[in-house]
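fold-stage: in
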Amino acid sequence: MRAVVQRVTEARVTVAGESVGSIEGPGLCVLVGVTHEDTPQKAAQLARKLWTLRIFDSATATEDTGVEQSCSDIAAPLLVISQFTLYGDARKGRRPTWNAAAPGPVAEPLVDEVVARLRELGAKVETGRFGADMRVALVNDGPFTVLLEV
């Protein structure tokens, strides 16, 4: 599984003009891609990583210590959005291929598993709509963006 994680002050996803998920920060906007070899165990691992990833400033942080807190420390919300294009490959030619991306029937349950595991850990999670043409708007705080792979 692959995730692009952005620390945000706010994020929203809309489908056909309707807001389907939004968070007010500090929080994380997480784009999740699934490949063919991914499993529910990897989804659980990604959820734990997202919940405990220290990318928020501590109230007592100094310039030397920087980021010290995770979503679990500050009860930060997450907006999780499926994104098959994270497995795009544009090394050849000018048009990417998505052969490494898992098909919807494989990917959707695994993205749902990430969300379910986050909620089990105590996270407030909003989502996009799998397979929909989504519009994502966010304010990246920092900017701070991290790529995770499990």
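fold-stage: in (second)
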Amino acid sequence: MRLNDRILGVLLLALAVAYGWGATQFPEPFGGAESVGPDTFPKLLAVVLGISSLYLMLRPDPDNAWPWNRTGVELVVAVVVLVLYASLLQPLGFIVSTTLAVGTLCWRMGATPIKAYVTGAVSGVAVFVIFNFVLGLALPLGLLSFLEVS
């Protein structure tokens, strides 16, 4: 499995570089280049992904077989949920789409549906409040745009 890990590491490194480059294409925030802007979080993710992919290439796991059983199915479900999350973020809004994504992932990890979606709702609202009111970064409201304060 060393070759598979190294191939995955190369692909993830290419993704990290592309993602980091894409983040540099955002316009400069109003407060200037030194303030936290829309490019800050994607750049941090690109750095973490790049370091992780380098580690995967340099220190692959020698005896890790790919999980083609239920774990493999759960990985596919998680990827589908994250792709849907990204595509529904603008139309549904941050809070609704985060509630659905986090709730679904928690449920797939074994939480009861009620606890899973309550966790998703609390996470969505908490992160929205932090980004919108503490950091001053607007997130899309989508379906909840009637709550927008002028």
